[in-house]
């Protein structure tokens, strides 16, 4: 029995057993395609179709949207999503492709949308039939989110949108976008409003999606151009001018303060993938020769390897602490801290893997001699997106210092 299971309520105990039984009977097995590192790197229709089918299956079985109300497509349970997440991780299932929809759009829609809009959007979001993306960053407004300039002009019960969003993960597959817009140019924070927009239906007639090629050669990012896109006022969340407050709901969940509706680690490993954690790093070091012996036997590498093992274990225990209300001295501290540290630990682990492989690490995907199929170097290059997404590490440290520790703002 796991530590988490020992603390389960009767409802959670019953649900955990149900999850275990269902996953044992319905595990999808070896994927027919190479899976990317995370949902944010999905590039091909084959990858997406496989992962969407898995999410639909898990949703139909009640393992997704567990804690949402039944009338919006949820399971109507209490604090059971984390149980389903833990069991999916333990079973090494594929990740869920609709990560932005589940982790950011769903809670924002739940807290700020009309009942009609919730009932319209959430069931297909949970099932993965509608993929979602996030329209926040702009070429001139990345970390300074309040400076977005994509503008919506009101015309009766419609809004006409013009502007440019960038670094938009999954936009090439997305049906819907959560979109922060400026509706008043004379105000900064109070001049923002928040919409949900059906971008796929408008491709070629108000919306253009252009892939951005990353250093890895993948195209998970995109830029999205709005050219006189007309949307109905019913797609606005909350009041006009309240977009900043709605965006804070989104960011609260993106940064981990809300329970993400998708596993964040573990998962099914395809033929060419690997474990991008300390255990995977140790396995790599044991079979990689450095001189006349494995890298794992080199004292300097051993020190570095054990530092990553310790950091990863500390992070895991911090995540456990975050589930105990009595230990939360500040509602945002552990969540923000875990986002910051998890992204940097992942990056440092991948960087050490690159160091371990040495010159052979210059071999890339597809080369039969590349260590771990070239996947560690892919992980290292992708890791920079993780330390930028949801606010850069620098932004996270500022938030922790100013809002959690009460330190004065830097000048």
Which tags fit this structure?
12 helices; Butyryl-CoA Dehydrogenase, subunit A, domain 2; alpha+beta; four-stranded mixed β-sheet; Butyryl-CoA Dehydrogenase, subunit A, domain 3; 411 residues; 13% strand; four-stranded antiparallel β-sheet; 3 domains; Butyryl-Coa Dehydrogenase, subunit A, domain 1; 10 strands; single chain
Order of strands across the widest beta sheet? 1-4-5-8
Query: What share of the residues does DSSP label as strand, in percent?
Result: 5-15%
Quick one: overall form? Answer: globular
Largest sheet at a glance? 4 strands, mixed
SS content category: alpha+beta
Cα end-to-end separation: 51 Å
Question: What's the CATH architecture of the largest domain?
Answer: Up-down Bundle
Helix content: 40-55%
In terms of per-residue confidence, which ranges show pLDDT below 50 for 5 or more consecutive residues? 255-273
Number of E-state strands = 10
The name CATH uses for the topology of the largest domain is Butyryl-CoA Dehydrogenase, subunit A, domain 3
Number of helices: 12
Task: Summarize the model shown.
The protein has 411 residues and is of the alpha+beta class.
Characterization of this structure:
The chain is an alpha+beta fold and 411 residues long. Helix content is 41%, strand content 13%. It has three domains: 95 residues, Orthogonal Bundle (Butyryl-Coa Dehydrogenase, subunit A, domain 1), CATH 1.10.540; 122 residues, Butyryl-CoA Dehydrogenase, subunit A, domain 2; 127 residues, Up-down Bundle (Butyryl-CoA Dehydrogenase, subunit A, domain 3), CATH 1.20.140.10. The strands form three sheets. The chain has a four-stranded mixed beta sheet. About 5% of the residues have low confidence.
